[in-house]
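Example 3.2
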Amino acid sequence: QVQLVESGGGLVQPGGSLRLSCVASGSIFNINVMGWHRQAPGKQRELVAVSTSSGGTNYADSVTGRFTISRDNAKNTVYLQMNSLKPEDTAVYYCHVHLFTGRQFESVWGQGIQVTVSS
């Protein structure tokens, strides 16, 4: 069984920064894709940023230039550095990974962490 634990959320003023972390643990052979999604109240969950094992990254247009995704494969950890935060970035942020346990491929979600951007 694989678990994801997110940290780093909280309340920040507009223009501020936060860094989210997500650590994967459990039966992990290798992790292919690690990413972040978010869901604001009354809205659908959306992709924020994704990182592949080959080093590729992709970002939502709304965060390009402000957010940076990175990963430490040795620690099974993915980060999301969020700069120049805006009130519209307020949402619950979810870590998501695609991995191989050694027996099967799995898609795993974290429990979500609140990010609130407000003055």
